[in-house]
Structure formats: C-alpha cells, structure tokens
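User: Before I run my own analysis I want an independent prediction to cross-check against. Here's the chain; please return only the structure tokens and, at the end, one sentence I can use as a sanity check.
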Amino acid sequence: MARVYNFSAGPSMLPEAVLKQAAEEMLDYQGSGQSVMEMSHRSKVFDNIIKEAEKDLRDLLNVPDNYKVLFLQGGASQQFAAVPMNLMKNGVADYIITGQWAKKAYEEAKKYGKAVAVASSADKTFSYIPDCSDLPIDDDADYVYICHNNTIYGTTFKTLPNTKGKILVADMSSDILSQPVNVSDYGLIYFGVQKNVGPAGVVVAIIREDLIRDDLPESVPTMLKYKTQADAESLYNTPNCWGIYMCGLVFKYLKSLGGLSEMQKINEKKAGILYDFLDNSKMFRGTVRKEDRSLMNVPFVTDSEELNAKFIKEATEAGFVNLKGHRSVGGMRASIYNAMPVEGVEKLVEFMKKFEADNQ
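Assistant: Structure tokens:
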C-alpha cells in the first residue's frame, strides 16, 4: 500500500529519509551488532548518540551555553507539574490561557501555588491570541507561562507577551523547529517530540542554568527535579534510547535541509497554499483570526456537520488521513508539520476544490 498523507496532530508523520535510515540501522546500528532499542544507555555507543543529538539541537536552535538541554520522559503533560514544582519560589505564577493545554497546565499549577490567569481567549473558543502588551503581571510572579502554538485551535503567538521582566516559560510541543527561535527570550522551553521531531515518548526541556535549583522542597519527586536530570546529563535512569536516536536523525535531516530559516520558508509556503484556498472558498472557511494563524495546525469547517463528516470520510478514502478536528472543536484540522511535503498540501487543496465542486 502506498503511504498516505498523514495530517495527524500527533503522533505525526516523520520524514521518509529518516524512517528509511532507521530501518537500515534497525538490526545493526553502525557496526555495533545490535539495535539502538537493545543497547545499554550507559554504553559508549549510546553516549555518542545522545551527545550528538544534543549538539545538533543546540546548533539548530543556537542554544546559548548557559542553557541545559534535557531529554526527559512523561510527555509535555508531566511538565505541567514539573514547571511549578521547580520554578515557584514565591509560590506565584501567571498563565496566559489560549487553549486546552495551557488551561491544563494552569489547573495543574494551582496544586503547587497561586496560579493566576492573566489573559484568556476562552470567550471566543480560543480562536485568537489575546493582547499581551500590558498584562496585570503579579509582582511576585516567578514566571509567565504560554503555550506557544495551540494545536487544537490553530493559533500561535506572533509577538511574545510583555512579561515585565518575569521569566517566560513556553510549551512549544507543536511548533518547535518549524522556524528560528531566540532561546534567550525564555527561561524554559519544553516540547513533547511527537508532533514535529520524533516518535512519542520523549520530552525535551531547554532551561537556563540559573533556574536549576538545589533548594527545592523535599516533597518534589527526585525524577521531576531539573537538577537531577541536569546533573546526570539526562541519564539518571534509563531514557527513551530509541526515541532520542530518532530525534537525532531528525535533527540531522533538518540541518541537511539548511536549518530552521529554510524550514520556516517551506512551512510558510505550505500554510499559504492552504490558507489562500480557505480564504477564497465558498464552502470551507478557517476558524482562526487571520493575524494569529498557526503555520502548523489549520482548523477549518463547512457550514454543515453532515458535509464535514462526508468530507472527512471521502478524504480518508483518497489517502488524506487524520483530518478530523479535535473532539472539543469538531470540523476539520490539517496539521502540516515539518515532515509534511509541500506536495501533500497541494494535493489536499486539489481534493478540497474537487469536493467543493461536486457538493455545491
């Protein structure tokens, strides 16, 4: 069977070149006589894999020397708790609620201190990014938290919030490596890799060294202390060796394409093709305020639930899979991460044009 165009929000498609290399190395990684799945995380071979993956990620993002890169487990959802546990010194944090994941992080933070929702776009089903130029930032806030790109709702921060000198923390699970990032704008960036980087099971944290504390309360679990992970160079316990290896292959693949500036051009082209069609279609329309549109996740609808269902069914049969919108929103959503080729978006638009013509 031919490979489909997979528009899943995650786990999402991976570059074919990466999958082919992983297949070639499956039984024997570079003459070691074993698969990466089988080797000890304490071995010299794996030590080279994780160190090279970190170096390539640092190169791609121009990570400053005073930031640690940690390969962790538990997904982005575990970071909802790890962030307040590690960063709340005064016991206060400000959250900008732009979707389900920011809301979940905010609710989790309430368990560890005073979490304050300083802005929200819930009033219009998270279809826009609120004005964050003059927020009521708490004087005692230890950090300000954002979800940089909202996978479910298809919005993204084009301008970072004015944190009034407070540390900015960002969940970048669904848009990391899609464009250049000025890491020094943030105290902490973290991302689950299963959308734009690798297979599910790894979460990466990039944290400024001065935020790694050794004076945390005894109640903070050892595994959730950034200091534990930083001191052990992500090897405190057995990490997801295979997942880290796959991420490393993706990092090398992105470098071979020319890095993140080049990826941004490709992603802007892909998103432009789809948004241009939606803006001119008589049947389909995007659901997000234009100035806040994501390059990665494009939600859209027709005026009829029946038509939405028919479109999803026929698209799936035609090889365009996982276009159904999140259950909390409905409609459709095309996630067009780095690994989605331009051709995939062009063919989706061709199909949408034909569907529109056939269902007038």
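Sanity check: The mean pLDDT is 97.
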